[in-house]
Amino acid sequence: MLHSVNMLTIHRRYTYPPAMEQVRTGEQSPPSGGGAMSKAASAKDRVDSALRRLESMVEERLKAEAGRADDLTKRLDRLERQHDELKKVAMEVEGRLERAMEYIRSLLAADQK
Q1: Distance CA 64, CA 58 (A)
Q2: Which of 5, 7, 54, 69 pairs with 38 at a CA distance of 20 to 30 A?
Q3: pTM for the complete prediction?
Q4: What is the C-alpha radius of gyration for the chain, rounded to an integer number of angstroms?
Q5: Residue by residue, what is the 3-state secondary structure of 38-88?
Q6: Is 56 exposed, middle or buried (0-12, 13-18, 19+ CB in 10 A)?
Q7: Separation of alpha carbons 93 and 97, rounded Å
């Protein structure tokens, strides 16, 4: 047999702590044996910390989106001005074409007489 079951098995150290082991972040104080109250306070601190991080992320996103909205507003204003200018040019060209067609018709009518 070319391949054995053992060839496919990789022995690694686990990267996650065992289920009963607690992991503390730098913001938390070491356990003080206060029981349920210290666990509740610790949980509240973690929630408060997460909320602060979330609020700061939302504020950063709002600033970025406000800047983007300002840029888009400026671009829209510029495009509207260009559109108005193009409409004026189109109306001028249309008028000139109508006058040219009338002139050509008058030349053809005079030629037929």
Answers
A1: 10
A2: 54
A3: 0.48
A4: 38
A5: HHHHHHHHHHHHHHHHHHHHHHHHHHHHHHHHHHHHHHHHHHHHHHHHHHH
A6: exposed
A7: 6
Q: For the chain, how far is it from start to end, CA to CA, in angstroms?
A: 106
The pLDDT tens digits for 63-112 are 999 999 999 999 999 999 999 999 999 999 999 999 999 999 999 999 89
Task: Considering only residues 85 and 23, tell me which one the structure prediction assigns the higher pLDDT.
Answer: 85
- Are the beta carbons of 38 and 32 closer than 8 angstroms? yes
Q: For residue 89, give the 3-state DSSP assignment.
A: helix
What pLDDT is recorded for position 1? 44
Query: What pLDDT, on the 0 to 100 scale, is given for residue 55?
Result: 97
Is the distance from CB of 45 to CB of 28 less than 8 angstroms?
yes
Q: Is the dihedral of CA 63, 68, 72, 78 positive or negative?
A: positive
